[in-house]
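Re-running the complex after MR caught last week's input typo. The corrected sequence lines follow. Everything else is unchanged.
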Amino acid sequence: MNTEPVIDIRNLRHVYKNHVAVAGVSFTVGSKSIHGFVGPNGAGKTTTLKVLATLIPPQTGDVRVFGKKIYTQRKEVRSMIGYMPDHFSMYRQMTVFEYLDFFGAAYGMEQRERDKVIDDVLALTDMDGRRNDFVQGLSRGMQQRVSLARVLVHDPDLLLLDEPASGLDPRARIELMEILQELKKLGKTIFISSHILSELAELCDSVTILDRGTVKYTGSMRGLVAGDGVVSSYVITLSAPHATLPPALEALAGVSKASQPIPDEPKYSVQFDPAQLTPDAILQAALSCGAPIIGFAEELKHLNQAFMDLTEAGVRSDSIK
Amino acid sequence: MRPLLALFFRSIREQTRNKYTPLVRGVVVGIILLFIMGIQDKPWIAAPGRDFFKSLVSINLFFILLAAVSTFSSVITEEKEEFSLGLLRMTNLNPVSILLGKSTSRLCGVLLLMAAQFPFTVLAVTLGGISLTQILAAYAVLISMAFFLCNLALMGSVICKSNRTASLFTIASGFLIYAILPMIYFALTMRVVRSQMSSTAEAWAGFLKYFVDANPFNTLYDKIFSTFFSGPVFGLQFWTHTIGGIVLFLLSVLLFERFCGSSAEADGQTAKKAKAGSKSRRPRAWTTAAIAWKDFNFFYGGKKGLLIRALVYIILIGLSIWFGNWSSSPYSRFTAKEFGEVLLMWSIILACIEILSVSAGMLGRERKLQTMSSLVTLPINTGQIIRYKLLGALPLFILPLVLLLVSMIFNPRPVQSFFRGIASIDRFEEFLFFMYASLQFLIFPILVVNLSLRFRYLAIPIAVGIVFACNFGTGIFMMLFRGESEAVIIPIIGLIVDLVVLIKQIYALIPRIAAEN
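Corrected-run output:
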């Protein structure tokens, strides 16, 4: 099995006049996964995406897609990627079918092949019934679907989506996320940018958080929300308060803290060293002291909190003097 | 009062802050000074002041006409194209303040340019051959003409949906008022003198005479610039143009809600949805040249567009033949030779129009639609994109070519003599001038393509301005080397360098715009 990363960015740096947009970014994205690319406005997400889409040559650093150098081998790279920008760039006088037919032909596909692919992508994006509608008359959500269908026409292995959910209503967002899950099942690698981490939480396998041109976190989504791995934190939910539970847990070797964060609420938080204790042992100790347990789960940091912890407040003002 | 003038003040402020404003005014004053220097160099001229002022007025006329078809006619259509008219209408600005604010500021820009040159033009009185009254009268003509055309273009901008159609509206109506109606008058009076005068013809002639008397070109060149001018500063032309401008402005206000209101937007939406159910009759995309297919069908109208063009061409040619025949002597017949000449003339005019339209739109439209990134990320290079785009535009030249070929059947002499002329070039200086002229024809569309990638609007007028300024510079340069026609080799080298630089810039601008989208 090929374990080579689909996207491999090493020390990418990009400067606009006297403004450092991307300052030495490095991360990789594995095959057949959905990778979130998150950061506040002005973090350098779109610049990185444009480099990946071969629109901007990397000024310094090494950027590879499917092992190919992004700019020197851009013709090969372009046939393997589908880039959807953060705005609607469409030929509005065309019908949906004509729009997709044009891009299919522009990628060198024969008419019969195009017919089949267009049917498939329209079915996938649920735009079957709109194939003869003019792009101009479609709603924003539908135009977004057509843009996504356009990106899929030439069957690329990697999709680069720049804030695809921006401006969509909640229903359209959920439907878009479902389509992306479908695409992942079809073996596509999806690189999706957003400035809202929680939007991608359930969708992504891995995430890179960018702030002020630098990578603040890259890895699994679980790793981001589960904390640093030195201290584990679990929540025990009871049917009624139980006063002896905290001291009983604190008596265990390796437990650093056992507390009831909100008085009168039968929820207890326990923090322990995973090297010394297992969650099973914690649960066993709680049951032994007779606590009426109805829930036992790992305490995950709230996504927004994780995002706030990693990124800095205020507007970016760094520049090259 | 504040909301009424809010847009106007904003535009004036923007114009004042714009770094190009003082530059343009400086260039205008520089041109005037060069003119004065040129005139001083010719002591044999009888009325140097008048000659100098005449040239200056001609330049002003040229730029007013250019402003009318470009900056004036995009006043409202640019908001329509940007879908920002609805936002303007949502504010507490009423149609009068929107129209007044948007059009008057542009008009003021033109008037301020004239104001900047005025103190220098008074020097013409000192040079001799023209009086201050003549200068004031000429400026009254220019100002009233600018005002009239500004409001004519404003009405076109209110009625039409795009900058392109608004420009065409302004060109067509300006042509009708300033050229066709006076021509009909002259033709009519010539016939009336020759034959029996009917009362209808007399009435028509009387009506059309106003268009001749109020014509700014006639007023300037036949009346104001004549040696014995003794008319008032504000003559018939001034008043008709001023009143006409006010009427057109009021008409624009009345038509605003009909063509720019919410009902108009709703109509557009309904039309699109109504069309949506039917299947497209356009041919499938060409696998080998999809971009050419897209451009031909969606930018240039496809086969339907060619058919409409053919009909328009037939009407234009028919009209010009009818007019030529009608205005000539009743005893002379319209010959096959003349028919061939008419066809040749139209083939050249229409080919030039198509070249301009293609060069302004082939890449400029992709920039406006923000679709450059989708093209650039296709697995083809920039050169291929340009080649496919040129291929998509080629069918537009079939009709002018057919006209040319048909014209050669009826009258091959003009084309033959053109090629004979080229073949007979035996002197080096003739060859140089031929090279200079040919390079200009080649460089102009490339300059327009280049500018269409830099400016959202006005690529053609800016290109005209640049070419005009460059030719002016070349004229001055040649004056310095009087009698040495070989000196034209330096401007030729300059043009070749420009050509290479412009093409290289186009290749560099395409990916840059795609990245900026």
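None of the earlier attempt is carried over here. Chain A has two domains: 7-222, 232-299. The domain at 7-222 of chain A is CATH 3.40.50.300 (Rossmann fold).
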